[in-house]
Amino acid sequence: MALRTIVQDGDPILKKKCRPVTAFDDRLAQLLDDMRETLADANGYGLAGPQVGVMRRIFISIDERDLPEDGERPEDYETKYLEFINPEILSTEGEIMQYEGCLSFPGRNGAVRRPAKVKARAFDRNGNPFEIEAEGMLARCICHENDHLNGVTILDRAEYFYEDLEEDEIEEEE
Ligand SMILES: [Zn+2]
Asked: What is the pLDDT of residues 135-148, one digit of tens each?
């Protein structure tokens, strides 16, 4: 495994549309392993192909659905990941406005409206299709990462950025 460099703001790669994955081979597995390591190292929640310079329809996300209600991590908790290859969002429900960040835009926290629930379909690294229903942080992450595959980022989605708010506006928010 190896750490990959995370593409940063200003790189035109982040605005390009990705092509589907056609080969579910060792190279793909290696890429996914590297993306996991890179995501863990950066302490992020999700990471998409273009963010490591790969213009393919791939993203990964942390899977915390097995955490207890209070979000408290058991001592021996092992981080789990979900891998989405050639993903497709099938349906969405509701809407939540929340701040979200992106490893490609450090220090930027955009207020983004996202669906509360998402149903998606994708393939795993072996080429097996699966469907997932997600809500909360995972639903938000799936939408955010799926955007990356279409060249869309929080710069396009955010209605405003926390850092741009005046102090009195922040107080109003709270
Ligand atoms: Zn992102």
From this structure: 999 999 999 999 99
- Taken in order of first residue, the domains within the chain and their CATH numbers are 12-173 (3.90.45.10)
- 73-84 confidence digits (pLDDT tens): 888 888 899 999
What number of CA atoms fall less than 13 Å from residue 79's CA on the CB side?
Answer: 13
Residue 51 CA, ligand 1 centroid: distance in Å = 8
What is d(CA 141, CA 148) in angstroms, rounded to the nearest whole number? 11
State the burial class of residue 20 (Cβ atoms within 10 Å of its Cβ: 0-12, 13-18, 19+): exposed
At 107 the three-state DSSP class reads coil
- Catalytic-labelled residue, pool 145, 166, 167, 172: 145
The yes-or-no answer on residue 78 being catalytic is no
pLDDT in tens, 18-47: 999 999 999 999 999 999 999 999 999 999
Cα–Cα distance, 67 to 70 (Å, whole number): 8
Return d(Cα 43, Cα 54) in angstroms, integer. 20
